[in-house]
Amino acid sequence: MKKIEYPLVLCFLCVLSGIVPGNAQGLPGNKFGDIYSESIKWLPFPAFPPEARLAVLVGEPQKIGPYVIRVRVPAGVILRPHIHPENRIYTVISGVFYIGIGAKFDASKLKAYPPGSVIVLPGNTPHFHWAQSGNYETQVTANGPLGISYVDPSDDPRNKRRHNKDVR
What we know:
alpha+beta, 5-stranded antiparallel sheet, single chain, Jelly Rolls
């Protein structure tokens, strides 16, 4: 009798059903669960510069309901002025988080928040970030759906990628 490799069969069934193991990790918000920091799955997020990463910890940010995400940005990266329709609560996990309020990037408006700081950002508030002094990681708690739109559409990395594909 031939031995069946159940993990292989499970992966095959997941691919057939359109579920890609490891892509989504958000824990449901209505039952016990946990994710250790070393198990966080960091992925690119099309609305961020390509060096930045996002991880879904709780919920499904694209749907209505609570979610928790983490954002990791390497030194020197700037997120140009943008807005989110949802109210957000940021907690600085590591590094120094620089955020400025306004529709135009102005380094003199940046305020530095060290690890442990909590920032409340009302929905539709134009703001910008700069990893000015090194890498940073923040945790964002909000109610979805998650949205992001850039004040100047030419700053939106999604538009730049589309433009690059059109040029080829």
